[in-house]
Amino acid sequence: QVQLAESGGGFVQAGGSLRLSCAASGRPFSAYAMGWFRQAPGKEREIVAALSRSGDNTYYSDSVKDRFTISGDNARNTVYLQMNSLKPEDTAVYYCAADYTHGYEVIRQSSEDYEYWGQGTQVTVFS
Fold first, then answer.
1. pLDDT the model gives residue 23
2. pLDDT tens digits for range 48-80
3. CA 78 to CA 72: how far, in whole Å?
4. Strand partners for 51
5. Rounded to an integer, what distance in angstroms lies between the CA atom of residue 61 and that of residue 46?
């Protein structure tokens, strides 16, 4: 089992940057496919980015491609989401998620595939 804790959210002006962190405790996060999701008020939770166990495969939604970067640090047991060129429409609660999988290169895009979730961190982008 793994416990996830997000941090790094906050208020930022449009065009600015934030880096979200997801600290994993318990089993090392390298045993999991990882993902970042977000949910804005009145909207469904959507995938933002995903990372395979190997760290070699990534996925980004079209809305964040070329602006966001997902990465992992095995030594710190932490997954990051670097968010650049932020827009007001990026405002949401951001969640980290983990799927325990034997597939080293597996990417999970559906929220239904993830068993473990953090509590979320609020990101607000103002213009």
1. 96
2. 999 999 999 999 999 999 999 999 998 999 999
3. 6
4. 34, 58
5. 9
Residues found in the chain: 127
Q: Of the candidates 29, 52, 23, which has an alpha carbon nearest to the alpha carbon of residue 118?
A: 23
Q: Rounded distance, CA 93 to CA 50, Å?
A: 16
Q: For tokens 């969640």, what's the residue?
A: 95
Confidence band for 114, pLDDT divided at 50, 70 and 90:
very high
Dist CA 63 CA 96 (whole Å): 18
Tokens of 51: 């990372």
| Mean pLDDT in residue range 93-101 | 95
28: helix, coil or strand?
coil
User: How far apart are alpha carbons 95 and 15 in whole angstroms?
Assistant: 22
Residue 109 amino acid letter: Q
**61: three-class secondary structure by DSSP:** coil
d(CA 101, CA 88): 34
